[in-house]
Predict the structure.
Amino acid sequence: MSATPQSIPTDIFGKPVNPQKGDSYLTHDRGILSWLLTLDHKRIGLMYMVVILASFLLGGIFAIVLRTMLAMPGANQANHASYTDEQLAQISVNNDFYNQAFTLHGAVMVFMFIIPAIPAILGNFVLPMMLGAKDVAFPKLNLLSYYCWVGGGLFFVWVLGKGILNTIFPGMVEFWGSGGLDTGWTFYTPYSTSTGTAATAAVAGVFILGFSSILTGVNFIATIHTLRPKDMGWFQMPLFVWGLYATAIMQVLATPVLAITLMLLLAERMLGIGIFDPALGGDPVLFQHFFWFYSHPAVYIMIVPAMGIISEIMSVFSRKRIFGYAFIACSSVCIAIIAFIVWGHHMFTSGQSDLLNAIFSFLTMSVAIPSAIKIFNWLATMYKGAIVLETPMLYAMGFIWLFTIGGLTGVYLAALSIDMHVHDTYFIVAHFHYVMVGSMMFGLLAGMSYWWPKMFGKMYHEGWSKVAAILIFAGFNLTFFIQFIAGSLGMPRRYATYPPEFAIYHHISTLGSYILATGLFIVLGVWIHSLVRGRPAPANPWGANSLEWHTKSPPLHANFEKTPLATDPYDFDDWRWDENVGGYVMNENTHHEEKTAQTK
Amino acid sequence: MSTANANHAQHSEDVRQPQLAHHFDTLEQQYSSAKLGMWAFLATEILMFGGLFCAYAVYRGTHPEVFLYAHHFLNTFWGAFNTVVLLASSLTMAWGVRAAQLGNKPLLVLMLLLTLVGGCSFMVVKYIEYSDKWEHVSHHGSGSFSLFAGSRNAFYTEEGEFTDPTAVGQAVRYGESKQHHDEHAIAHTNQAGDLHDAPAKTLEHQSKHATEQGHQIVDATAAKTLDFKSVQTRPMPTDRSDIRRPAPAPQGLSEAFEHIGGIPAPYETLADAGTGHSVVTWEDLDDRQQGLVSQFFQIYFMMTGLHGLHVLIGMGLITWIMIRALRGAFGPSYYTPVDLVGLYWHLVDLIWIFLFPLLYLIH
């Protein structure tokens, strides 16, 4: 699409609006306190964006550190007979550093980026507007949830970061005390109850982060139930709302189990209560059951909102009504339900009985059904559509690719015999990176580039953002596809070093991670450029019809000038491309409110 | 403020009530939203305690004898008393919500006050129970329950031998005030049939003695030589050979699942034929189980402690709405906070209803 520079904001009919009245949520109040104490869901969404992307950067830096260390395994190898004692000591330090680095990477990425990112950033920003509401149901709770995140997150990063810093600057231990965590993000007992690193403080940090998740979930459930327009039934909601609803249910039902698990872990470390300690009559596998009862739904907490975003984008950028709306909506809820009964597949090798293994194997495979329903419906939506390859659509198509690989290898891993073989190898690493990182990150990037004009009222550079999307896709696949091969050949995960025959796989993987990082930094550059130099965004740059596009970009403080009526989010007939506005405008002869009323 | 369009205007009042937040159209919408949010939050509470109950179930399932033995040290009377108190406070809370709906301010304040009194008495009783448990858990030196040691040697004496806390108390008494004890024991035996909480009472008594004597360190050998019959206030089977020892406890969930149907029922075999009540004594526990008795108390402290924390939070909330009620904030059109705090209080009550039998009434 040609970009027509124009500086006067317009309403949805393409008519210029008076700049004096061009008040937006960004300019409504001024001053740092008006942001820090805001109850506006849009501002809270942006504040989440800053901190969550910062933790993504932190986790990403450590991903690169890990990949770089793995490209030079000699530095971590202790099997060389000619090594001096100093060299061996250095290798030991390196290995400790590696353990802490992969724990930090995993824990920060999971608890601070992947789980909260889409609901907290895009959900907060878009959900009330999609419902034509002025805010979420409990704005104060929303702010509290934000500060739970910030408090828990800062504490968590500080505790984990201290361990890293102490390894680099050993003299600083006296200054700020010991810290760090080397349990991996899963905190498995009995190691987590006996490790000398700061597992107690780290667990407390995750505990607080969990509250943020719970409060957001409660808020979204109440919002979706009670703040819909009066003429919007459940099956007139945009599919992203369905995705957020399924996510919120999982957040509310799963996270408290993590909370009590971590509390029992803390009690075991601090008070010597022996629920998980076999020496005290406890059962360490019980910890795994508890942990995965939360953490398996958490995997779907990551992916289901991303699926909602893809459903929106597929329809808008194919210029075609979504195919199989009700199936996509119900499959989200179906995934949320099945999420709670498949946790046992994480314990196939933990001494679970054969019967349980078989049951969990079967249940796990059944997740493929709702997932495949979504994939096929998206493909059917694209079929004979007028596909527009804008940046969000590139990411969405990348999502389908990555999720299909990640999902199919998931079915493969649900088969018991194969899981026994590849358990705790790079095959697993590759599988969950495809599902958790690849799919979720592509969903987030798709959503960010889709709603970016609405969030900031600025367009971004199409060319560079497409370059970034392609680089990220290529880099991601280069990094992780090769790990399937390494894993099936027996490369175990979480090791700082490996035999020489695995070197080629690690070198390729590391190269891919650099390409991936380059792409992500280009995205950052595109975004910053957009904020500084981007042309003002039209109210509706993509011709979408869900309610958030029925207001100005960026929206008003109260979202809408008047409470809108529900629209059909996948009916694009009322919008036409307007060259002068550089976006879509609504046909003036269409009074969609009347039209909606007539169809009732 | 009001930006509702013509279609919605009929639903919103001409003058917005002060309680109505800007993003809601009507008070009813705000009320249903808040109530739904509260129910969702209560679901999280139930799941959190659900995890704790699950941990309890697994631990009890793997070590039933330990729980059966150790629960005798909990005082059923105070537990039942607290149950009644909490149930009564739930009634007054519900009554208070009704008073708020009817706009009866004095009744609302009275009911909230009564609820608060209920919460206070619950916590006072909990304090009494805790300090009692604390006393003989932590004041018997190395030869008894050690609350925070949490280790295998919680029951070891310095000589490295197992001792029975009951027997330790007995040893103190044996030398110092035998007569007193005999009277005490007789008093217990005379209680008609229900001797269920006898060990707990005996122990209370003993711990008092121990305290009086300045935490006298007792020779473990002396404790072991004592005649247990004087401690047991009920007859024990004389021929122990016919008691089927419980199978070794399954060590993990997976094993537990495999043992379904195959676990011998230790309760039945150990049940006293005369009363149907089961009595597991210190002797019935093997060495490993004896070392795990303190775990029961830690689980007890964990579960009731978390619940007690919720009671305290609930009391804080009730105080808050009582102050608001005194200022006349609630009436038939707006009583959402009273309703929500009421829901929370009922949940706290409900959890106790499960905790009480699980911890105090084990058979």
Observations:
- Chain A touches chain B through 61 residues (CB under 8 Å).
